[in-house]
Amino acid sequence: MASTPTRPDALIHARGLSKRFGDLVAVDAVDFDVNRGEAFGFLGPNGAGKTSTMRMIGCVSSPSGGVLRVLGMDPVHEGPRIRARLGVVPQSDTLDTELHVDENLFTYARYFGLPRDTARRRAEQLLDFVQLRDRAHDNVEFLSGGMKRRLTIARALVNEPELLLLDEPTTGLDPQARHLVWDRLYRLKQQGVTIVLTTHYMDEAEQLCDRLVVMDKAKIVAFGSPRSLIDQYSSREVLELRFPIDTTPALDGLDGLAERIEALPDRVLLYTSDGEAAAAAVHGRGLRPESILVRRSTLEDVFLRLTGRSLIE
Amino acid sequence: MTGAQHVLEHHLTVYRRTWKGSLFMSFLSPVLFLAAMGLGLGSLIARGPVRTIDGVSYLVFLAPGLLAASAMQAAFVETTYPIMARIQWQRTYEGMLATPIAVLDVLVGEFGWLTFRLALSSCAFFFVMLLFGTVHSVLAVLAIVAAILTGLAFAAPILSWTATRRTDQSFALIGRFVITPLFLLGGVFFPLHQLPQVIQGIAWLTPLAHGVALARSLSLGVLAPSAGIHLAVLLLYAAIGITAARITLQRRLVQ
Ligand SMILES: Nc1ncnc2c1ncn2[C@@H]1O[C@H](COP(=O)(O)OP(=O)(O)O)[C@@H](O)[C@H]1O
Ligand SMILES: [Mg+2]
After folding, report:
1. Which positions of chain A have pLDDT values less than 50?
2. How many contacts does A have with B, using Cβ atoms within 8 A?
């Protein structure tokens, strides 16, 4: 984005960054900077190009075009030196199912060249940090999804990285497991670790990210803090109406009741600064929705506004 | 190359979990083969009109050929399904490549591991040969090296192929149409010169015939000039395979 100033101390600096697979453009000339100490997010639906972007940052995929600097270095030529200072949590776990939980951490620490005793100590600390101490000698296969994810996060931390990349850290986890992961990430951020994550959950982006970009179809369609994005692209409140099947009124029946109206397959969203007043007005027109909900705007609404689609189809 | 050492260390850590079973098999399989084919079939041959094969007892003829062929089979097994698992089913390599380890480290570590495995199983085989009394020359120890090289001459090209695959379908076909026919017709169980010219010609194009010939002459304590050719063919297969694997693995893992 032209309005993003170039920060010389940015940990990640991308301009016109592109990735093509044959004819398919997975990432189309994106610009962004990630600053030290912040939590930065890529929010977008499946296929938006989030993983492709993360893999270029992680130096395991070379850009097809544009500029990319990670920790001030060039990922194509200095991959190993950059990766020595990164922690990577890939979209699907790459844990060693043939090894025990603690062996996974120890072996991974050795990949970074840590001496054995340091590796052992680090593994111990991280088992505590992700609350897997009592599973230390278990086979990885027997861990729950949430435990595996935590182990993957612990593994990404063995080299005490400055920059932690997380590709959909909580996809597929139940709410409790997600909150545990969020809590650990929040602690890491407080310890000064810079966090870059991708997600298609708007609540995850709102909870964790200081700044984020919204990605859709290989492009960045908006960027800013969660609050500023909501302020910029959505109203303060949203009135959600559900009508009995096949009785959804023509949209013009709702005309003038809100700044903007979105009709989704299962409900109608009215964007307004005052949801209660809009609800009263709906009743005033003699409409009888099956259910009425007034809520605050979220990043989901921002995405809908920008792309005309929901984040999770 | 400390990265490659760490890859090797990983494989050894996993092996610590399974070594007992796999080493047991490394002993059992040659015992069974040498007893059944070498002694059993061999005693029939000893009583027949020819009595010996190329001037030695059938057991002595068979053992070094089987040594080389076992290395071929071990190489085939190690470079198909396990490599596929590390590329795509378990994604072990993806995990490694998120660290300072590079694709070349992965490859070198993998070949270090293969060499170690081939050395272990070939030594076990050689030990069984000693028990069966088929070793009569100090030079025979070098047959172990010939077997390891035979394994690598298969491992490298197969690994480079595996790195291009998205499914495991072709592995069974390689087993059925390459490895098993070579095992049966590659000069292990009877001399190649008994086969039709065409098949002999094909056999000599493959590493197995050269590995078997090299292991056999070494085990008999003979260092013929042809040993140089056998050695060259084995090294050539390994070198071409490693070069190809470097390209295909890089393409597969760093997209
Ligand atoms: N290795 C690859 N080869 C070909 N196409 C790919 C590859 N990786 C990703 N793509 C394609 O690039 C697009 C973006 O994918 P991805 O970066 O995984 O998106 P996201 O992580 O946001 O879901 C998709 O259309 C996907 O099919
Ligand atoms: Mg993805």
Report:
1. 1-5
2. 73
